[in-house]
Backbone:
């Protein structure tokens, strides 16, 4: 485990937060449907993406960002801090419980990632540099797609081909909304097929797990992530990190975003060294 104090200073030095370093040009397209020719009104309303593309740059990495909200609310977004960092950002909207089951929400997330794989190169990016990220429920979706390979396999995508995952305060046991579907109390932990922990395996893409401080986070959130981290290491994954942001509660999106940028840039630097 790496503590926040050292990492936050390094992240600011590595990333830089001054607008004077921002790229001058970028394009943004909103409300692009990622299901083709759907006749479902709810899908057509919710299953949309916004995409931010850096101009005058090619072969860039793309962060697919899933918003939080307990899988019952929220809205697609492109976090402001992620702009002007040299990579694309895709903000994903998805359907909510109880209108649909949690499994269908994960399937929405997979459909959105499939859209990115199919379309990012035509916009100048690389399908070999797609990163999944998000906060809370959104981070849960990213981990589910990465660890349970079946969702992306349906789209002829190997989850191992993801460039990496940066998860901000995800549930790693069965999501509480999925437990509610089964009539299980919110404070009764379970691990079943709707838990990232259920799908622990070897040879996953690089994964960075970030939470707030263990005593300030939502109940057990740090411990869930610590357990996933430990199990991923035990089965043989080396490129896995657990970062605890001391002094921050569940609303730890910032300062976690600079760490997200630092992680992606670190993976890109390693990729360049291989060439």
Residues:
């Amino acid at each position: 485990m790496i503590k926040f104090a050292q990492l936050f200073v390094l992240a600011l030095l590595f990333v830089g937060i001054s607008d004077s370093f921002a790229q001058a040009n970028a394009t943004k397209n909103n409300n692009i449907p990622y299901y083709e020719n759907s006749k479902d009104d709810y899908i057509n309303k919710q299953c949309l993406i916004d995409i931010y593309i850096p101009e005058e740059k090619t072969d860039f990495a793309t962060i697919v960002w899933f918003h939080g909200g307990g899988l019952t609310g929220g809205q697609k977004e492109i976090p402001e801090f992620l702009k002007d960092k040299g990579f694309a950002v895709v903000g994903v909207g998805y359907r909510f419980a109880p209108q649909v089951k949690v499994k269908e929400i994960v399937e929405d997330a997979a459909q959105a990632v499939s859209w990115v794989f199919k379309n990012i190169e035509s916009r100048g990016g690389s399908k070999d540099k797609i990163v999944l990220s998000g906060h809370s429920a959104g981070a849960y979706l990213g981990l589910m797609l990465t660890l349970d390979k079946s969702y992306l396999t349906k789209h002829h995508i190997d989850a191992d081909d993801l460039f990496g995952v940066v998860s901000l305060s995800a549930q790693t046991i069965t999501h509480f909304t999925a437990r509610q579907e089964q009539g299980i109390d919110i404070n009764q932990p379970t691990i079943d097929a709707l838990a990232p922990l259920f799908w622990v395996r070897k040879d996953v893409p690089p994964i960075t797990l970030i939470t707030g401080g263990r005593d300030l986070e939502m109940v057990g959130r740090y411990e869930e992530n610590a357990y996933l981290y430990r199990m991923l290491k035990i089965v043989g994954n080396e490129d896995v990190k657990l970062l605890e942001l001391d002094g921050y509660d569940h609303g730890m999106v910032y300062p976690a975003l600079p760490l997200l940028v630092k992680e992606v840039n670190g993976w890109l630097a390693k990729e360049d060294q291989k060439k």
